[in-house]
Amino acid sequence: MRRRHIARSGRYLRVADPQWSDPLDPEHARERGGRWNPPGSFPVLYLNRDRQTARRNVDRLLADQPYGPEDLDPGEAFVLVAVDLAEARYVDVLTDAGCASAGLPTTYPKDAAGVTIPHATCQPVGRGAYDDREPGIACRSAAPGTARTDEELALFARDRKRWRAVQRWAFDDWYWGDRT
Fold first, then answer.
1. Angle at the Cα of 164 from the Cα atoms of 162 and 165, rounded to 5 degrees
2. Would you list the domain boundaries of the chain?
3. How far apart are CA 118 and CA 114, in angstroms?
4. Which of 54, 56, 97, 122 has its CA 20 to 30 A from that of 46?
């Protein structure tokens, strides 16, 4: 099956732990895995297209905790790092045609019954794209509360020269700030 591609560039956003020495280090995802890579496989830098999608991912990370974002100590809460990317053509899991070409339903990130498609279904797609030397996957966000137009980027971290951090915001400044 031939994958479709979509050009992406510009500013993306990384939600990071303020204690990380390098908030753009993709090794955490290599070790623990994520939507597009199984644990112990290959490094991926997971990025958000906008602040709203980043907020939804923080909400997802806190969903099973006995506290919410309002309870976080501002000095220890997630920071947001702006990353500038040069243009590249990514595997398309944004459009219906792109989802289908990747072997996923056009309803992605949900299945026909409205259930979120599990990581185990997406990881072989990521593995195949990584093995084929693709730069990454541009996809619809699977975070709860996002719309079909909310976008994430799974950047396969082979060459760190393709991205650079350009700005960083403390949690209270980005999470509670401008809600548009």
1. 155
2. 5-174
3. 12
4. 97
